[in-house]
Amino acid sequence: MRHLKAFHVFHIAAESTSYSEAADKLYITHGAVSKQIKLLEMYLSKTLFYKNGRGMNLTQDGELLKRYTNVAFDALNTGISKLKETTSDYLEVSCEPTLTMRWLMPRLSNFYQSSEIDIRLSTAGGPVVLSEAGLAMAIRRDDFDIPSDYAKHNLVEEWVGPVMSPQYWNMIQSNHASITLLHSKTRPDAWDDWIAVSHHDLHLNKSNQSFDHFYFCIQAAVDGLGAAIGSFPLVADDLKAGRLIAPFGLCPSGHNYSLIRHSRNLKAKEERFQQWLGAELSNCTPDKFELCI
After folding, report:
1. Does position 37 have pLDDT exceeding 90, yes or no?
2. Phi/psi at 220 (nearest 5 deg)?
3. What is the spatial distance between Cα 169 and Cα 180, in angstroms, rounded to a whole number?
4. Fewest 10 Å CB contacts: which of 91, 99, 122, 283?
């Protein structure tokens, strides 16, 4: 096929607001994008974009071509993913960063020793496009809409509540108003959400400290910097080891940690990993003394 590179550049540019944005996605220059688009327009004898302020918009012909390049490159990505699946002895899995570091990684070697299936982890949260990312599965907290063409398998119910180090609790237990509330930018409403579902009437102060990621927030609680809203099973090992305590208990958040995959029959290695995850997490529920009352 002639000018395949130009078609790919057009495909990316058509999904972008400007040639500059397309250039950033392709790791080439603005001029290189413009050159490929002009080459394609000459080849097709059609104008594909028109300038709109600082951006570029598709013409009617450009919109038509976009529909077909979407189909073509989606099919190519699907074919590449299927080819990798048939030749690999590993699974590409995406997992929530904090769940990866605080719960999954310490257990993953046990799965490999029993199955000899290599799990290649990447970390991310929120919505995911499995085929584009080259993923077989993704482990997510189900706080977003799952596309209808994906299957969702709930692994464990999430429980939440304030957690802190035992030393910090000894300092503030007689004066809850002095608790420093630890927040994360990835879960900015965690405290408000916990108060709503737990119905606790704690008189908390306005002393706050914020971190970019939930993992740092939990680690700050372990280090005695304040109290964070912990998510079980993420804090399960810390609670069992006594690095953290949950003096106000934990209660269901209304969410689950789930495995997201393509809506098709599971391959043998995928089914084995799903079963192992389910078995491990089924043993990871709060003890009775940690429940909200």
Report:
1. yes
2. -65, -35
3. 11
4. 283
What contacts 200, CB < 8 A, 6 or more positions away? 194, 248, 292
Residue 282, Cβ density class (10 Å: 0-12 exposed, 13-18 middle, ≥19 buried): exposed
Buried b / exposed e along 233-263 (16+ C-beta atoms within 10 A): bbbbebbeeebbbbebbbbbbebbbbbbbbe
Contact 198, 154 (CB under 8 A): no
Beta bridge partners of 210: 183
Of 185, 172, 177, 198, the C-alpha closest to 286 is 198
Q: pLDDT tens digits for 170-206?
A: 999 988 888 999 999 999 999 999 999 988 877 666 6
Distance CA 222, CA 219 (A): 5
Burial of 42 (0-12, 13-18, 19+ CB in 10 A): exposed
Q: What is the DSSP letter of 266?
A: P
Q: pTM higher than 0.70 for the full model?
A: no
> Where are the extended beta strands (E) located within 189-290?
208-211, 227-232, 251-262
Q: How far is CA 135 from the centre of its chain?
A: 12
d(CA 146, CA 221) in angstroms, rounded, equals 32
In the chain, what are the helix, strand and coil shares in percent, each to the nearest 5?
A: 45, 25, 30
